[in-house]
Amino acid sequence: MDMTKVSNYSIFLIYFLFLEFVVSDVYRVGDESGWNSGTGTNYLTWSEQYNFTVGDVLVFKYSTIQHNVKEVTNATYRSCDASRGVIATYLSGNDEIKLVEARKYNFICDKDDHCLGGMRFSINVFGGFNGNNTTPTEPPTPPSQLPPSQGDENSAFVIRGKVICTVGILVLDMFLF
Fold first, then answer.
1. Among positive and negative, which fits the CA dihedral 86, 88, 94, 97?
2. Distance between CA atoms of 170 and 96, rounded to whole angstroms?
């Protein structure tokens, strides 16, 4: 076995061992319509068509003049009153929110009564690739002493799509060349 094959084999093993940490899907909230109140998009229906797992990323694209994104508690989600119960606030217009734990997430837009008009959805995020189907827990209680964080501070480094294709290429390279 030459050194190239050994090197390729080592790379394959590294990818395989860390696959759980890099496999993620990226979802654009509202698909082509984005996070926008003028499209008639039913965000609850949109969210119900997907199975979200730890590591996935939600991308919210919207006009910052008209909208925002707030992750909120269950009570705030039900009432659409964001004067309390806000876990995080995102304002960039191109927010990438990585789903980092198996739990329930609630998102709303609280500008101009958009939440009451349907700009809200709730998702259950389950355990990741390793088969850990952990049941989602309730969202965390928001910190009362800290201001909500901005989207740019929480933007995650996103591995776009699945890396399984990359691993497949490495395997083919290892055995065919």
1. negative
2. 29
What are the residues facing 106 on neighbouring strands? 122
Phi-psi region of 164 (alpha: psi -120 to 50; beta: other; left: phi over 0): alpha
Quick check: 13 pLDDT over 80?
A: no
Which string of DSSP letters, residue by residue, matches the chain?
--HHHHHHHHHHHHHHHTHHHH---EEETTGGG-S-GGG---HHHHHHT--EETT-EEEEE--TTT--EEEE-HHHHHH--TTS-EEEEE-SSEEEEE--SSBEEEEE--STTTTTTT-EEEEEEE--TTS--PPPBPPPPPPSSSPPPPHHHHPPP---S-SHHHHHHHHHHHHH-
41: tokens are 């998009």
pLDDT single digits (tens) 14-72:
555 555 455 689 999 999 999 998 889 999 999 999 999 999 999 999 999 999 999 99
List strands edge to edge, sheet with 120-126: 52-53, 120-126, 104-108, 69-72, 86-90
Q: Could you tell me which of 85, 24, 30, 86 has the C-alpha nearest to residue 57? A: 24
d(CA 158, CA 171): 24
Q: What is the pTM of this model?
A: 0.67
